[in-house]
Amino acid sequence: MTDVAPTSTLAITMALLSRAVARSATFQGGVGASSTVEAERRVYFSETGFSDAHQSEERPLAVVSPVLETYGLIAGGESNVLRPSGTLFLYMAKDVPPSMQGDTWRDRRNRDLDSMNFHGGVLDDVAALSASEPSEGDPVIEQDGQALGELPITQLTLREWGFVSEGNRPSLGYWSLCIADVQWGDSA
């Protein structure tokens, strides 16, 4: 089966954010991957990812989904130019280690810090990669025959952070989640 290449602005931006998450050293360490290509197997798009996050025992994982895509006026007069920009939704889930699932103050504190270190580390890495060039061996994403660098992020906003427990399905575990809005656009 041949992979489908992203060609629309929406598909390309989702693929770029997916690659940036997979390039994150924090994400690669969390999923036990030794490359971007290997780590990207744990980054999903939209509904598939949400289903996997709540049914899988393979966490950490990330989900990239569209929120808003716009074409804004950049110039005026006779040279009106519309440039795309938008917001993508980044959802991440990570299992809570069994050693941190207790109810003591230390368990809760360690659980919080472990979660914040992972989710915050991925967000830090993605922000640092904004508009950079991909590394050799990373998946190539093209537009009009040109290889693209990373997504130009204009703002990263943490929307939600916390823990999920499937009370009636304890076999699915206990995990932390992070939801962020990733705003992107052409800065030129």
What can you tell me about this protein's structure?
The protein has 188 residues and is an alpha+beta fold. The model has no long low-confidence stretch (mean pLDDT 85). The strands form two sheets. It has a five-stranded mixed sheet with strand order 1-2-3-7-6, sandwiched between helices. The protein is built from five helices and seven strands; from the N terminus they run αααβαββαββββ. Helix content is 32%, strand content 31%. The chain has one domain. It is globular and about 65 Å long.
Short précis:
By secondary structure, the protein is α+β, with helices and mostly antiparallel strands. It has five helices and seven strands, in the order H-H-H-E-H-E-E-H-E-E-E-E. The strands form two sheets. Strands 1-2-3-7-6 form a five-stranded mixed β-sheet, with helices on both faces.
Helix and strand layout, with pairings?
Elements (H helix, E strand, L loop, with lengths): L8 H15 L1 H7 L4 H4 L3 E3 H10 L5 E13 L8 E14 L9 H25 L12 E2 L2 E2 L5 E13 L8 E12 L3
Parallel strand pairs: 1-2
Antiparallel strand pairs: 2-3, 3-7, 4-5, 6-7
Radius of gyration of CA atoms, rounded to a whole number: 18 Å
- The arrangement of helices and strands along the chain is HHHEHEEHEEEE
Structural class by SSE content: alpha+beta
Mean pLDDT: 85
Q: Percent of residues in beta strands?
A: 25-35%
Number of domains: 1
Residue share in helix: 25-40%
Number of DSSP-assigned strands: 7
Q: Low-confidence parts lasting 5 or more residues at pLDDT below 50? A: none
Q: In DSSP terms, counting alpha (H) and pi (I) runs of 4 or more, how many helices?
A: 5
**Main β-sheet, in a few words?**
5 strands, mixed
Please list the strands of the largest sheet in the order they lie side by side. Answer: 1-2-3-7-6
- Principal-axes geometry comes out as globular
| N- and C-termini, Cα separation | 38 Å
